[in-house]
């Protein structure tokens, strides 16, 4: 089995995606026959490196325990074939995918589960998919590239292994994707685990305490934070976030509060500020968007 490298939407293919946005050639959408709702079989033990780990609010599973789903079980869900240009390698490729809405319907969801959190064990990267996002932006789990499953990855021409799982989105599949500020943060590769989460519970720290009554721009900044920065950073009061960054929220808040200029330069171009920075650049952020982020991170209160 090829080594599973760090995931993230990161540097390896984010720019490629940007450049090839709109490169969808055709959407075949063939739905296979499949079983009943909530029909995915969960295993207690791992049987293959290509099993997907499920955690969180699983019906009938004690909290804190994990379960495994086999690739073949996922392949038996309703799948679609998407023809995309440049998704993994140059030129056109056919992907066999399961839309997260269909996966969601097949999962044994426990009470309160309203969000999927995709995480990558090797580098701690995390992507969040709320039910409204699943419906509006149609994210999909990639099961095959040109008919080949993950045991045959990477496909010829790709110099890293995107497996065991990749989630992606495409403006050709859902036009709403073109409106996202950071589509790359919804395209993690190297995904090993899906958590069935309750959004309010996992992100409570960003909505309570000093973050309960925020200014309008801080509220806007919170959206950017949760959908982008929290892929790698934990939020206020230890609220959920990826663990790729070792900088605490307090460190970020100190930069945001006392050195906004440094903060903005870093967020836009980390490598330009610190050689070897692992953080992904966000060169497209406007001053207003960065001010919104600063307002969120420093908990700018609502005017009375
Ligand atoms: C792909 C993962 C990733 C994402 C996404 C990310 N960061 Fe980071 N960030 C890091 C890492 C890793 C570090 C530690 C320094 C480094 O290697 O860049 C860091 C460090 C920082 C620092 C501190 C720089 C210093 O000098 O210590 C700030 C400020 C920061 N991030 C803000 C943000 C904001 C705001 C966002 C959202 C727009 C964001 N980050 C998104 C990974 C990420």
Describe the structure in brief.
By secondary structure, this protein is an alpha+beta fold. The chain folds into 2 domains: 14-201, Alpha-Beta Complex (Sulfite Oxidase, Chain A, domain 2); 203-297, Cytochrome c-like domain (Cytochrome Bc1 Complex, Chain D, domain 2). Helices cover 25% and strands 18% of the residues.
Core attributes:
alpha+beta; Sulfite Oxidase, Chain A, domain 2; 2 domains; 6-stranded antiparallel sheet; 5-stranded mixed sheet; binds heme C
Report the helical percentage: 10-25%
Low-confidence regions: 1-26, 28-36
Cα-atom radius of gyration: 19 Å
Quickly name the level 1 CATH class of the largest domain.
Answer: Alpha Beta
| Percentage of residues in strands | 15-25%
Give the second-level CATH assignment, the architecture of the largest domain: Alpha-Beta Complex
Q: Tell me the strand order in the biggest sheet.
A: 1-4-5-8-9-10
Structural class: alpha+beta
Mean pLDDT over the residues: 89
Q: What string, H for helix and E for strand, traces the elements in order?
A: HEEEHEEHEEHEEEEHHHHHH
Number of strands: 11
The tally of structural domains comes to 2
Largest sheet: 6 strands, antiparallel
Small molecules held by this entry: heme C
Shape: globular
What is the name of the CATH topology of the largest domain?
Sulfite Oxidase, Chain A, domain 2
Kindly report how far apart the N and C termini lie: 59 Å
User: What is the count of helical runs?
Assistant: 10
């Amino acid at each position: 089995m090829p080594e599973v490298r760090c995931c993230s939407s990161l540097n390896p293919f984010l720019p490629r995606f940007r450049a090839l946005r709109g490169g969808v050639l055709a959407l075949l959408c063939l739905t296979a026959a499949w079983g009943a709702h909530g029909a995915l079989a969960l295993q207690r033990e791992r049987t293959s490196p290509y099993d997907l780990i499920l955690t969180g609010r699983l019906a009938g599973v004690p909290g804190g325990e994990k379960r495994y789903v086999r690739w073949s079980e996922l392949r038996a869900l309703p799948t679609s074939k998407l023809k995309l240009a440049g998704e993994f390698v140059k030129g056109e490729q056919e992907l066999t995918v399961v839309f997260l809405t269909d996966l969601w319907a097949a999962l044994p969801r426990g009470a309160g589960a309203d969000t999927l959190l995709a995480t990558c064990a090797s580098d701690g990267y995390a992507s969040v998919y709320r039910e409204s996002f699943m419906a509006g932006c149609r994210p999909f789990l990639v099961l095959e590239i040109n008919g080949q499953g993950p045991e045959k990855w990477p496909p010829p021409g790709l110099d890293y292994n995107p497996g065991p799982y990749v989630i992606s989105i495409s403006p050709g599949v859902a036009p709403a994707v073109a409106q996202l500020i950071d589509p790359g943060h919804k395209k993690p590769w190297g995904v090993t685990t899906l958590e069935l989460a309750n959004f309010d519970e996992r992100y409570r720290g960003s909505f309570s305490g000093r973050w309960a009554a925020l200014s309008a721009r801080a509220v806007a900044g919170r959206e950017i934070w949760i959908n982008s920065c929290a892929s790698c950073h934990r939020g206020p009061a230890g609220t959920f976030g990826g663990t790729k960054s070792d900088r605490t929220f307090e460190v970020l808040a100190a930069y945001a509060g006392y050195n906004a200029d440094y903060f903005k330069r870093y967020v836009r171009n980390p490598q330009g500020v610190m050689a070897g920075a692992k953080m992904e650049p966000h060169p497209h952020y406007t001053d207003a968007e960065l001010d919104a982020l600063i307002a969120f991170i420093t908990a700018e209160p609502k005017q009375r």
